[in-house]
Amino acid sequence: MRARIAVLAGDGIGPEVMEEGTRCLSAVARLFGHTIDLDPLPFGGAAIDSHGEPLPPGTLRGCREADAVLLGAIGGPKWSAPDASVRPEAGLLRLRRELGTFANLRPVRVHPQLADASTLKAEVISGVDLVFVRELTGGIYFGAKHRDAVHATDECRYSAAEIERIVRVAAALARRRRGRLTSIDKANVLETSRLWREVTQRVIEREFPGITLEHMLVDAAAMHLINRPRDFDVLVTENMFGDILTDEASMLAGSLGLLPSASLGEGRRGIYEPIHGSAPDIAGRGVADPYGMILSVALLLRHSLELQSEAVALEQAVAQALGAGMRTPDLTRGGAAACSTRAAGEAVLSRLRRPA
Ligand code: NAD
Ligand code: IPM
Ligand code: MN
Fold first, then answer.
1. Rounded CA gap, 323 and 273, in Å?
2. Which CATH number among 3.40.718.10, 3.90.950.10, 3.40.50.2000, 3.30.70.660 corresponds to the domain 1-101+259-356?
3. Which ligand 1 atom is at minimum distance from the Cα of 274?
4. pLDDT tens, 40-56?
5. Phi, then psi, of 152 in degrees rounded to 5
6. Angstrom distances, CA of residue 36 to CA of 7, 33, 217, 226, 304
7. Residue 72 CB neighbours (<10 A)
8. Among 206, 210, 199, which residue's Cα sits nearest to residue 165?
9. Rounded to whole angstroms, how far apart are CA atoms 111 and 154?
10. Phi and psi, residue 37, nearest 5°
């Protein structure tokens, strides 16, 4: 097949992990006989510096014309002054909104080879296999904002239609998995959460009779997630709760650097990015963990290009690289030796095989 991928490397470690992501993507294309054209485009802080805005019109156009968008990470201290008039993060939020990618899938799987890399006990995390479905284009991120000298407001809004469509995505996913859906809200305090709970209950009762639905308050969910993570299958939640809980959940797998994500809308086009940020504290040193980025490439192959065998081949190569002890410094808690970003990427490339 032939495909065109918009490549938005961004800032900080974004370009470092993207380099390994695109090398893996091109290697998969060669191995399976596809032509995948990469279209690098300015985005985030780098685009503020070169074009005066984080999402220049040419970048948005390139993303719309592409079959999928591959994204590194954006942001950093240079563009984060409290009085900054334009921020990299605004470009990311606008891109998600413009492309209509309302469903952000964040799978968390514990690789058996990494049981010692987590801060949590191996007996608690072994076998964890869950997916967060985070609502991505609504809620407090996109509500009206107001600020004067002594007051500030961020409005949180959700419509029933926005809740219905994200719950349908999550329930359809749960149906293909173990049939369990946990909806996370703060219905004891927030009006948006009371609507969320009511709509979720209705959609599941009417449209997904085989799904076991449980509602959970977000504070308790933060606790249950590290107390009994194996009990979860699919978790659906609003934008900000999903942002926070998935960084927490990354520690089940062992590191924030390991988690990929797919942001999907109505069509096949999606945005694929690791869930971590630009990691200014380690940027420029060649030690960032590229596995979350590479696993995001696998999600791109699966969801936007419908290349399932290719996605599996890449995921297996990552598992084998981890099994061979190729760990960046974020994964060496158990006392293992550390490798560089490039060495981890190489380890994946050298293990990439067509399935027999
Ligand atoms: P961060 O995710 O960049 O980093 C948090 C911690 O995790 C740091 O200690 C970092 O070194 C570590 N880390 C993150 N990714 C890693 C990787 N691949 N390998 C090894 N260690 C890794 O979060 P932050 O420091 O709070 O934010 C930095 C900037 O990134 C901010 O400007 C924020 O807005 C932005 N951000 C962007 C995205 C995105 O582009 N999607 C996501 C989150 C944060
Ligand atoms: C993420 C990030 C973004 C978010 C920021 C950078 C806007 O934290 O992708 O998880 O909050 O969605
Ligand atoms: Mn986040």
1. 23
2. 3.40.718.10
3. 41
4. 999 999 999 999 999 99
5. -145, 145
6. 12, 10, 44, 40, 13
7. 29
8. 199
9. 39
10. -90, 130
CA distance 86 to 17: 25
Q: How far, in Å, from the CA of 351 to the mean position of ligand 3? A: 30
Distance 24 CA to ligand 1 centre (A): 22
The full DSSP string for 155-214 is: -----HHHHHHHHHHHHHHHHHTTSEEEEEE-TTT-HHHHHHHHHHHHHHHHH-TT-EEE
256-292: b (≥16 Cβ within 10 Å) or e: bbbbbbbbbbeeebbbbbbbbbbbeebbeeebbbbbb
pTM for the model: 0.98
Active site residues: 141, 186, 219, 243, 247
Q: What is the DSSP letter of 296?
A: H
Contacts of 198 (CB under 8 A, 6+ apart): none
Task: Tell how far the Cα of 246 is from the centroid of ligand 3, in angstroms.
Answer: 7
pLDDT in tens, 306-337: 999 999 999 999 999 999 999 999 999 878 89
What kind of architecture, by CATH, is found in domain 119-253? 3-Layer(aba) Sandwich (3.40)
Asked if the domains at 1-101+259-356 and 119-253 fall in one CATH topology, the answer is yes
Task: Kindly state the tokens that stand for 99.
Answer: 């492309």
Ligand 1 nearest atom to the CA of residue 75, by list position: 32
Domain ranges of the chain: 1-101+259-356, 119-253
